[in-house]
Write a structure and sequence with these properties.
Elements lengths: L11 E4 L2 E4 L11 H18 L3 H12 L5 E3 L3 E3 L2 E8 L6 E6 L11 E6 H4 L7 E7 L5 E7 L6 E7 L10 E4 L5 E3 L5 E7 L5 E8 L8 E5 L6 E6 L5 E7 L4 E7 L8 E4 L7 E6 L2 E6 L7 E6 L7 E2 L8 E8 L2 E8 L2 E8 L2 E4 L8 E4 L9 E7 L6 E6 L5 E6 L11 E9 L5 E9 L10 E4 L17 H4 L4 E5 L9 H5 L7 H16 L8 E6 L1 H13 L5 E5 L5 H6 L10 H4 L5 H10 L12 E7 L8 H13 L6 E6 L10 H19 L5
Parallel strand pairs: 34-35, 34-36, 36-37, 37-38, 38-39
Antiparallel strand pairs: 1-2, 3-5, 4-5, 5-6, 6-7, 8-9, 9-10, 10-11, 12-13, 13-14, 14-15, 16-17, 17-18, 18-19, 20-21, 21-22, 22-23, 24-25, 25-26, 26-27, 28-29, 29-30, 30-31, 32-33, 33-35
Helix pairs in contact: 2-12, 6-7
Length: 683
């Protein structure tokens, strides 16, 4: 079967005296039957290409499924008289949320389980289903949760009576996907955030349980289109924080959860470039701010005077503080140091960092813990160590291992190895990256290798354990993870050096890591794959243009590749919010810089690697037309015979199919394509 050929319709964009051709502009109109036909033609071509790999897909899928444990259960988190947790059963697609009433963790083994939400029961068919935020009222009477069935960021809020199991008639639509629902202290009111026509969260509402949502009161609107609106409950439960957030600026207001009808209280007026987060601790607010501290410092201010500021302890440029978790008996801080995630405990005017046995790891604090807890739950993992939950005694700082996530099938960590290595970028900066492999995989010469990266928004790519990586490792494939600039792995400056007018550092860092892997003899261009999703899809898309000859195959998943056109369209979701990340192309200097790397605008008549591109028809973050247009232009211009496929999920959005079995099948398809091109065959 020959690949589809998209028709070319003359269309031009003109700005700043520059005229750009966009012959596939017509693919943006999803109401046009020809657009849907083209996407379906591409899907048929994808199926035709995958047909010879059908047996490999099934083998890989079954090997991934074999790694699903019979039962997975999170460590229960205490909240008042209950311990709350989620669990998965092997044959089921979705999680089950439950609780047990117990006075202590020692009683959990014999306490009866109460299922509060079985997502599998909500999934009536094989269609898309996403359940995100779930919040139990402080009096434990009600469960609020968000549900979506089309892959957009528009969710519906449902409220369930946990005593009767019935849904209240208080159904509310158009609620944002996350950080958008919180209860007042008495469980009489619920606050929620709705989205505008571009799916930007911008309005905060107050709803009284048992009343008509049409009567809900709008209590705040974020009018600036470059800001998003979120709400968070304080660790203590005393406040709800109403946070207006742009990429480089923050403004926070307080709602007294014990007095939900009282007016909002402003913590500090927004100032461009100043970011801050707020928590409550005793009689004070804690302010985590970048003012005068690039890697953020912690200030204390009394609730009686929000203008008063006092540093909790001396600022240290080598520590990057990111999250605060106040407990009655101590303050827990999460952040980064030496390129790795870290957790510190602050009490009695002393700051103590928790230490771990492995040189490479990721550590985080479990959300939703009680302010009065004596023990804080910490999750730890590495490329070799499954997710392990520790209890840290806040008095003694003693660690107790509470659970090691089960790994189905045979797993002996001594058969694998992990390394941290460094590559030198064009400007001399050392770029860290991790590799994980089966022991001996690199001893007999170059190996097939998959290189991942993200590198945007300050998001980090930290070492993590995946049981689904093991079957591929056992085939001698090596995984590498590049911590390129644009993330914040090495601190805030690392992020700033990979955005705006420095965005190309992200791409050249990735290329430097690829070259380093080849130079060390770990792999060759014939054995090297690149993979990235969303902004990571932009990364590997840009690299395909800049240095495609380094790779045999590239996997751009829901890739942000039509950067210049998207950043010029203020009517699209997220566009105005993104100007602080990519630049504002209404300004000539930003326009021409973005144009110089935008993958769609830089396709050339040259050879490209094999490519497996994905899209979601309902994707609000990266419009389906971006990968569709890009693939169409690549088909028209590329000079090679390498395979190029586009798979569009016609019933989902940015995150692909819902349900873990559906997701594993998609992963098996992607692996089958990728590994086939690297010459790896599963037996």
């Amino acid at each position: 079967m020959k690949p589809p050929v998209a028709k070319r319709i003359p269309y031009f964009h003109e700005i700043h005296g520059d005229r750009r051709q966009d012959e596939y502009h017509w693919l943006r109109d999803r109401e046009d039957p020809e657009v849907i036909k083209y996407l379906e033609d591409e899907n048929r071509y994808h199926k035709a290409i995958m047909r010879p790999l059908k047996d490999q897909v099934e083998i890989i899928f079954n090997k991934l499924v074999e790694r699903i444990p019979e039962k997975e259960e999170d460590v229960p988190v205490q909240n008042g008289p209950y311990f709350y947790y989620s669990r998965n059963e092997k044959e089921k697609q979705y999680p089950i949320y439950a609780r047990k009433r117990a006075a202590s963790r020692d009683e959990l083994a014999t306490a009866p389980e109460e299922i509060i939400l079985d997502v599998n029961e909500l999934a009536k068919d094989d269609g898309y289903l996403s359940v995100t935020t779930w919040r139990v009222s402080p009096d434990h009477r009600f469960l609020a949760y968000l549900e979506n069935r089309d892959g957009t960021d528009r969710y519906t809020l449902y409220i369930k009576n946990l005593k009767t199991g019935e849904l209240l008639p208080d159904t509310i639509s158009n609620v944002y996907i996350y950080s958008s629902v919180e209860w007042d202290h008495a469980g009489e009111y619920i606050f929620y955030v709705t989205v505008d026509e571009t799916q930007r969260p911008y309005r905060l509402w107050r709803h009284k349980i048992g009343t008509d949502p049409e009567e809900d009161e709008l209590i705040y609107e974020e009018a600036d289109p470059t800001f998003m609106l979120f709400i968070f409950r304080s660790q203590s439960g005393k406040f709800i924080f109403v946070t207006s957030h742009a990429n480089t600026t923050t403004e926070v207001r307080l709602i007294d959860a014990e007095s939900p009808l009282s007016p909002l209280r402003l913590v500090e007026k927004r100032r461009k470039g100043i970011e801050y987060d707020v928590e409550h601790w005793g009689d004070d607010l804690l302010i985590l701010t970048n003012e005068g501290a690039k890697n953020f410092q912690i200030q204390r201010c009394p609730l009686s005077n929000l203008e008063e500021r006092d540093n909790l302890f001396e600022y240290n440029e080598n520590r990057y503080f990111q999250y605060l978790y106040p407990f009655r008996r101590g303050l827990v801080i999460a952040g980064r140091e030496n390129g790795l995630t870290q957790v510190w405990i602050y009490k009695n005017n002393k700051l103590v960092r928790l230490n771990w046995d492995e040189p490479i790891y990721t550590v985080s604090v479990v959300d939703g813990q009680s302010y009065d807890a004596d023990e804080v739950l910490i999750q730890y993992e590495s490329l070799l160590t499954p997710k392990t939950t520790f209890g840290i005694n806040l008095e003694t700082l003693e660690k107790t291992c509470l659970q090691v996530a089960p790994v189905s099938g045979e797993y002996d960590p001594s058969l694998y190895e992990q390394k941290q290595l460094w590559a030198e970028a064009n400007d001399g900066v050392k770029i860290p990256y991790f590799i994980v492999s089966r022991k001996g995989a690199l001893d007999s010469g170059p190996a097939p290798l998959i290189l991942y990266a993200y590198g945007s928004y300050g998001e980090n790519l930290d070492p993590y354990f995946s049981p689904y990586r093991l079957p591929v490792l056992d085939q001698g494939v090596v995984f590498a993870y590049a911590q390129v600039r644009g993330g914040s792995e090495m601190g805030r400056q690392w992020y700033e050096d990979g955005k705006m007018q420095k965005k190309k550092n992200t791409f050249t860092d990735f290329i430097a890591v690829a070259k380093d892997l080849i130079k060390r003899g770990f792999t060759t261009p014939e054995l090297l794959a690149a993979r990235g999703g969303s902004a990571g899809g932009l990364l590997v898309g840009a690299v395909a243009n800049m240095a495609g000859d380094l790779f045999k195959v590239i996997i751009p998943e829901v890739p942000f590749v039509d950067v210049i056109n998207t950043m010029l369209d203020e009517n699209l979701p997220l566009t105005t919010l993104e100007w602080d990340e990519w630049g504002d192309p209404r300004k000539p200097e930003d326009y021409f810089y973005i144009k110089s790397y935008s993958p769609y605008d830089n396709v050339k008549a040259k050879a490209y690697p094999h490519m497996y591109v994905t899209a979601g028809l309902n994707d609000p973050r990266v419009g389906y037309w971006e990968p569709a247009k890009w693939v169409a232009r690549l088909r028209a211009l590329k000079t090679d015979d390498n395979i190029l496929v586009l798979k569009t999920n016609m019933g989902a959005g940015h995150f692909g199919s819902s349900g873990r079995y559906n997701q594993l099948r998609e992963e098996a398809e992607c692996y089958a394509f990728l590994l086939d091109k690297l010459g790896v065959v599963f037996e």
